[in-house]
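re: ur question from the group chat, yeah i did fold both. here u go
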Amino acid sequence: MAKRVAVIGAGVSGLSSIKCCLDEDLEPTCFERSDNFGGLWKFSEEPKDGMTRVYKSLVSNVSKEMSCYSDFPFREDYPNFMSHGKFWNYLQEFAEHFGLLKYIQFKTTVCSVTKCPDFSETGQWNVVTETEGKRASAVFDAVMICTGHFLSPHLPLESFPGPS
């Protein structure tokens, strides 16, 4: 029986984590609190749930050769430095090519991750989630936290005098 892995977040790291799990014959379940994958790369006019997003005119400052997945290069016709829309399209192509979307539970918030009572013997984790007001609990052999470091913006406004 394949080991079960909880992947928290379906952005750039979450998508690659799902694929790596599949490559290693593990059974991933990805929990994504929004209604789509791509994390901060999915542009939205109105940011939701306090999530940081790209801005409308963003163009990546990292070349496509340095920002692609090692086993899935950008198409030749993509520009070297691309808009957020092109980058999100690339993520969509990656997810569809490797069949990753079926492993993602959208609109699902992870409420807690705790060691199971028998953790010292099993190494298992209890993951509590909430989807549309309904809570669920599941046991996993491993947990990958792929929420990124831009999840909660920190604005140290008290350190900068002037209008805010």
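okk and heres the other one u asked abt
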Amino acid sequence: MTARWTVDRTKFVENVKSVKSNTPVMAVVKNNAYHYGLEFAIDAFLQAGITTFSTTNLNEAILIRKIAPEATIFLMNPVTQFNDLRQYDIQMTLPSLAFYHKYQTELDGISVHLEYENLLHRSGFKTFEEMKAVIDDNNQLPVHLQMNINGIWTHFGYADEFDVTEYENEKEAWLKGLKWISEYHAFEMIHSQNSASFMRDSLFDDHTHVRIGIILYGSRPYASLDESVTHQSLTVSANVIQVRNISKGESAGYSFAFTAEKETKLAVVDIGYGDGILRTRSKHDCIIKGKRHPIRALMMSHMFVEVDDTVQAGDEVILYSNEIRIDAFTFKGVGANSEQLSALNHHSLKKEYINDINVYQ
């Protein structure tokens, strides 16, 4: 028996179609498509009608080009492998005035999106006046030496916060600055909204795309959203190896991890933190035979679950599914949606795609 990571392709595609509806979407596929598998995700997104993708890694961007020759690909992190950008027709962020001045003579023919820093302060131009200086300087160059400034973007760091004013502040700064700079340059692509902003405001006027990630993969960006807005196609499951009885006062697991307060049945399950189950996740329930049972101790390759007489060796144990969702644990403080996904160990878990005419392993 082996613990499993399983994605239902049909449910994944149906969810993407439902989330996007008629909105033009740039699908975020960074970090191997949130560890769903880049090849699988790109193929599924194409089937759902999405042809524009963004990632933070050049190698992933090149792989996307090989999977989807006609796609639009945007690289959210700057790189200096400019020949690769040209060869594979990859558009790249232009993050600052300093980057432009340093590499200006090497950027000819590169398609760039100007990035506004905003309140996240991760990267980007500090002001729209700096962006205009780049536009003006680029326009003065001979055409064959110019960049193609075809996009502009930002990222909202507070769109999933409701008790503070930062989201409204960063949104106002972006929209005001965008209106001003759009008088000087016609941008082909304008994108700023992550999953939380998209759910709150729909597509902004004058924007060409929403740039969304986690909601496409089945997790809500904030707790007040109804679960029906997105459906999780991922299931993480394991197996009961054995059911043990321990008496009141006896302990199980390393260093008295669990001490029974009464006669207790414990199922030994073949999954642990070495498989990517966070310790904070193990403070909550799992599902066996449709019923929730508390996890009592977590080890590298195993866990103990308190069970009743209905549970026996060989039973399936569900850690994540659409009935026991990643986002529900996010809102309980287990860790961000992407953190829980990223932790899962695809080397030790058996990786499966079901309801799929193709096979991805």
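fwiw on the second one: The chain has a mean pLDDT of 96. DSSP finds eleven helices and 18 strands in the chain. idk if thats what u expected
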